[in-house]
UniProtKB/TrEMBL annotation, chain A:
InterPro entries: Bact_solute-bd_prot1 (IPR050490). This is Extracellular solute-binding protein. The keyword Kinase does not apply. Residues 1-24 form the signal peptide. Keywords: Signal. It comes from the Bacteria. Residues 40-51 have a biased composition (Low complexity). The keyword Signal applies. Residues 30-51 are annotated as: Disordered. It comes from Paenibacillus sonchi. SUPFAM superfamilies: Periplasmic binding protein-like II.
From TrEMBL, chain B:
The lineage of its organism: Bacteria, Bacillati, Bacillota, Bacilli, Bacillales. The chain crosses the membrane at residues 39-62, 102-123, 144-167, 187-215, 236-258, 294-319. Keywords: Cell membrane, Membrane, Transmembrane, Transmembrane helix, Transport. It is found in: Cell membrane. InterPro entries: MetI-like, MetI-like_sf, UgpAE/MalFG_permease. This is Sugar ABC transporter permease. Belongs to the binding-protein-dependent transport system permease family. PANTHER family: BLL4140 PROTEIN. GO terms for biological process: transmembrane transport.
Amino acid sequence: MHKTAKRSAAAAAAGVLALTLALTGCGSSNNTSNTGTKDAATGGNASPAAAGDDTAPVTFSVFMNGPGQQPTPDNKILKLIKDETGISFNMEFLVGDLQQKLGVMIAGGDYPDILSGDDKLINAKAYIPLEDLIEKYAPNLKKHYGAVWNQIKDESDGHIYVLPSYGVYQGKITEPTYQGPGFWLQKGVLEEMGYPTPKTLDEYFDIIAKYKEKHPDMIGFESLNFDWRVFPLQNPPEHLSGHPNDGAVIVDNNVAQIFADKDISKTYYKKLNEINAQGLMDKEAFVQNYDQYLAKIASGKVIGMFDQHWNFQDGEKSLISQGKLENTYIGFPLLYPGAEEWYRDRGAVGTNRGFGISINAKDPVRIIKFWDKMITEDWQKTLQWGVKGEDYEVNADGSFYRTPEQRANADQTSWQVANKISGMFGYMPKIQGTYSDGNAADAGTQPQEFFDSLKPYDQKILKAYNKKSWSEFFKEPKENNIYFPAYSIVLKDGSPAQLAQSKLNDLQIKYLPKAIMASPAEFDSVWQDYVDRIHKLDIKAYEDRMNEGIQQRIEKWSVK
Amino acid sequence: MSDAVLDKQVKKQKTRKSKIDPEIGVSLSWKTLKTQKQLIFMSVPIALYLIIFNYVPIWGWLMAFQNYRPAVSFGQQEWVGLQQFKFLFSDDTFMLVLRNTIAMSFINLVLGTVTAIGLALLLNEIKLKFFKRAVQSISYLPHFLSMVIAAGIVSTSLSIDGGIVNVVLMKLHLIKDPIMWLSEGKYFWGIIGAANVWKEVGWGTIIYLAAITSIDPSLYEAASIDGAKRFQKMRYITLPGIKATFVILLIMNIGHILDAGFELQYLLGNGLTVDYSQTIDIFVVKYGLAMGNYSLATAAGIFKTIVSVILVFIANNVAKRLGEERLL
């Protein structure tokens, strides 16, 4: 009896050991079996592209690097695509942490057919080069990307791995909602002050001062200096002096220099120092985090701020859902005397953001042909506007519009998942601007349609300003400089340029709030201290790298 | 089994045990291995786990002596000797973050221990079960909050716009105008210390309470008979009773003196307080990981480990000299 007990104990221990070994080994064994089945599936599914059968049913797996909603199985657009091309999709949206997901994918080499763009995946050689495929099979895509052909090539080896989804325009840019930088004021404030149009900092802060005098519990001027969202504090000088958003540098005649230590900066922060002394600046502006900033905007108490619209839009959305339209904002392009406005820009091509074809893809030719078909105007209209007569109407002079019922539909998530493929379309090559018949690319950018879809209060405000859209408060964007934007020039990891940039950023985060909150008498000495510290950094390394990058882009990106 | 047989077996075991005298007891002999093979088998997975996850990664320390670049094979990495360490110790910012780290860690250690023991002593005196449990639950609930939420609560309650701290201080007429607590570096360490106490005091108390319950009740009875009052009992029985626990925890915590924290400081810090809020961990993230300088991050990590190991040994030795319980 004794012996058996002992033996069974030994067996149990061995069992535990075996289990542990199995568990530790499980990762790899699982992996191999997975790839095994996958390969088998791929083999079974591969369609004979060479045979020229272009409508045979096939399913492509697609991974998108952001969260999104699965279209319903009977989705209208997917059905149209399947009927015409035989292609259906197995979509996977990101759940959880992207880096982790990519890490697992790369480690296992387990890629779907179509992959959204990512530098990490490019470095892991997960994509096949597309330029030859496009030349051979995709005349429409070639035409679409013609003007930016050199820009969308990967910087390191000159191949095209990802087809950018945004930033390739044709026709006219009609962009009624403005997402870029500006000095914002509440609509209600403007209404009460008799619809003024501030053009300078003085006029702008004058409006805030006058309004706050009457409504003392409002917050005057708001700012944000948190985490990576420090640009609301750092960027105004470049816009005020008539430069587009190139990040930490301004570029004149293709020569970049930092502006943090220049007079255009001092003027602006001195002004903020003044208004802080007058009690117009939010005292907590520099100690709050992003959520607190949004909460303040959503409370409707903030009269104005400098920011990019997309950065505070969540706060504004909350205002809209509360029905407080009078607390939402209009942006103004303030300028220093003599400066020429360049607030709005033409959004650079989103290089490496879009779709690429993975090295595991079963039929790259079929995929590229599919995208080529999708970029034709007819398909773009279907993808962006919907089906004619169902989702939009055409009036006598050929322009597209929607009935109130169609608008209400389009706002509903349940309708969207059954009638649109917005999630995947966000990553596909697309036409922006206008079609050859003059209609805007989608309902949101069609000027009349946009105006008609606005709430009566917004329409009233726009009428008072004699405008049709929010972006009309800004000048039409000039043609981008070829290198634009300079902030996307890559600084090598660990290089002196990168170190200088990072230290400069740290100095700004620390000293700008200090200078603004100092008593006006002390401002100049704090500023001097700040400038001295900037000059101790290796700024030259940073500027040199920027200029090198600009020259490289001018040389490589120009299409001759 | 008859009593006699049982008796024999016990005796047999006893004699067998006595054969393993103290000296052989610790050394490994095949015989002991054989008699304890179940134990050995059971510890194999644990040992494997430790080797795989705690010892194999030490290999990565080599990175600190290279100018490590990802995606380049090991043989092709550039060796730079102690350059990363030199950079670390010649950088002004690093000296500042080292100071901040030690200061905040020290504050946390002292405040955390004192409040935890204090609360445990007080709770121990409470006879009303329900009240005691309620206090305990309320005090350890914040432990389960994520740091992001905790930081949000802290910064909201310190706000000048209706934050509870300012409101209370104003109502008590201690201050005239609301104070911007988070905008001044000199307040920062105190805020972190207080926030940590709020978040962790209940959790820390549990261990001390457990230690207190293991004190022999007859000691208290004897003391009462000798005429000891409440505070005397606390002082002469409870406190010495938990001394061993306290010393062991102290030694363990001293090993973490360079881990002042990351999240709370990162989330509550801002441009105005950066000279006081940045810790080693934040420095590593900013100048190491974010800038792809993994070698520097590793060097900082090695520095932390070595300092921690040295401190633990010192603390352990001091405890030994003082005749206290030891960890090692």
